[in-house]
TrEMBL record:
Protein name in UniProt: LysM domain-containing protein
Taxonomy, superkingdom: Eukaryota
Keyword entries, A-Z: Signal
Signal sequence annotation: 1-30
């Protein structure tokens, strides 16, 4: 019996060692951790909410990247969406198969290209991958949370707005020009080796799951396991609406249904 016990003790030790080795391995391969709904707690400093880390020397300094956005009554043309995101409206129109002057029906999933770079160096905890845009507060009552969650739909976070703007977050008034860092990331060496060219920041909505998101971008090379890996997620983890999920792609994404 004693022999058995010490045997199982050894097995346990071995198991723990394997786990911690794989944990180490995992974190060195690790890419960008998912915000995990921490963007809701504006007054907490979570590094994952401040941006995607680009501090390792092996990271690509800049790249073309993509984000998704859902049209609203205020942002329902390629031009207004491109202005909000500081990107090219002809490219927004082309990627989504719209004409540049079309009005887009509400809640349509739009793909927009952005230039992503390892900037955000001055931000506490940085450098972060981000795409810079500006937003003029439009009415009194807007907060960093409403700008991040409602206007930008989760493409940025209140924590990164607080950390990268000098305005006191309790005294925001209409007319202030807020600096908005849009979360984005460039492919890691491993992703490049695996044939991935872009990371799309997909905005999760109600009812989404990783499998379904992988399927909807399958034509551009999306794959379930590579999405989990890119976001440091495991199959059992829950994903939340109004948070971005990085989707590694091999080809330019488009809105065509697969
Ligand atoms: C968050 O970080 C900033 C800058 O590093 C600091 O000024 C602030 O007090 C921190 N807030 C909390 C809640 O820890
Ligand atoms: C926007 O993209 C189009 C191609 O879709 C290109 O011809 C044009 O030069 C770009 N405009 C700017 C300002 O970069
Ligand atoms: C783009 O839109 C046009 C007209 O709205 C349509 O005929 C065409 O099939 C669409 N193309 C794709 C690739 O969805
Ligand atoms: C960013 O990643 C590097 C390398 O993995 C790590 O040393 C550093 O602590 C990370 N920074 C943050 C803010 O998580
Ligand atoms: C944002 O505003 C700042 C100053 O308020 C300006 O220096 C910067 O060029 C603007 N950036 C963009 C992308 O418009
Ligand atoms: C700005 O505020 C006005 C008045 O509240 C509103 O009608 C308009 O839709 C807002 N525009 C944007 C872009 O949010
Ligand atoms: C975030 O924005 C969405 C869309 O406007 C809204 O439905 C949701 O309630 C907001 N979340 C919070 C926590 O306010």
């Amino acid at each position: 019996m004693a022999g058995n016990n010490s045997n199982s003790g050894q097995w346990l030790l071995l198991y723990l060692c394997i786990s911690c080795i794989s944990l180490l391995f995992h974190s060195s391969q690790a890419q960008q951790s998912y915000v995990n709904n921490k963007q809701l707690q504006c007054e907490q400093n979570y590094t994952t909410t401040l941006g995607y880390n680009c501090s390792t020397t092996s990271t690509t300094p800049s790249c073309l990247s993509y984000v998704t956005f859902r049209s609203t009554t205020d942002y329902n043309t390629p031009v207004s969406i491109a202005n909000l995101l500081n990107t090219n409206s002809s490219e927004v129109a082309r990627l989504n198969n719209f004409s540049e002057d079309s009005t887009i029906s509400p809640d349509t999933l739009i793909i927009a290209p952005i230039s992503c770079s390892c900037s955000g160096a001055r931000a506490p905890g940085g450098p972060f991958y981000q795409h810079q845009t500006n937003y003029s507060l439009n009415f009194t009552g807007e907060t960093y949370f409403s700008v991040a969650n409602n206007t930008y739909q989760g493409l940025t976070t209140c924590q990164s707005l607080i950390s990268q703007n000098t305005y006191d977050y309790q005294n925001l008034v209409a007319g202030m020009e807020v600096n908005v860092p849009v979360r984005c990331a460039c492919p890691s060496k491993k992703q490049v080796d695996d044939g991935y060219k872009y990371l799309l920041a997909y905005l999760i909505t109600w009812g989404n799951n990783v499998n379904q998101i992988a399927r909807s971008f399958r034509d551009s090379g999306a794959n379930y396991m590579s999405i989990l890996e890119a976001n440091e997620l495991e199959a059992k983890n829950i994903i939340f609406p109004f948070t971005p999920l990085l989707v590694p792609l091999k080809k330019e994404p488009n809105r065509k249904k697969s």
